Amino acid sequence: MRAKKHFEDLNTSEIDKKNSSEIEYSEEKNDIYTTLKLLSEEEKAVILLCYMEEMTHKEATKILKMPLGTVKTHVLKSKKKMGEFLIKQGYGN
């Protein structure tokens, strides 16, 4: 004997909220990727390793074969560039 499937009533306002938040997330994600395009290849590599891959600065130095000071400088410059762009896009206001 097959089990009966039960369906919940869908509230359209809940669906609209979900779609709206997904659109906002998608736009935010696009803005983040746009900020990465503003960075040099070295800056981008450092940001991806340290923030996306959650590596320490020291771990990134080994992979990128850069001095620790250079990695830290790239992090600071990159965060500044990205922050300035995101503020222009309306974030943080």
Structure description:
There is one protein chain. The protein is mostly helical. The protein has a domain of 59 residues: Arc Repressor Mutant, subunit A. Helix content is 72%, strand content 0%. It contains 4 helices and no strands. Helix 1 crosses helix 4, helix 2 crosses helix 3 and helix 2 crosses helix 4. 10% of the residues are buried. The model has no long low-confidence stretch (mean pLDDT 82).
**Superfamily at the CATH H level of the domain at 35-93?**
Winged helix-like DNA-binding domain superfamily/Winged helix DNA-binding domain
The third-level CATH topology of the domain at 35-93 is Arc Repressor Mutant, subunit A
H and E string: HHHH
* CATH-defined architecture of the domain at 35-93: Orthogonal Bundle
Radius of gyration: 21 Å
Number of H/I helices: 4
The separation of the N and C termini measures 59 Å
Which bin fits the share of residues in helices?
over 70%
The low-confidence runs, each spanning 5 or more residues with pLDDT under 50, are none
- Counted beta strands: 0
Main structural class? mainly alpha
Rounded mean pLDDT is 82
Q: What overall geometry do the principal axes of the alpha carbons give? A: elongated
CATH C-level of the domain at 35-93: Mainly Alpha
Largest β sheet strand count, sense and barrel closure: none
Provide the β-strand percentage band.
Answer: under 5%
Summed up:
With 93 residues, the chain is mostly helical. Helices cover 72% and strands 0% of the residues. It has a domain of 59 residues: Winged helix-like DNA-binding domain superfamily/Winged helix DNA-binding domain (Arc Repressor Mutant, subunit A, Orthogonal Bundle).
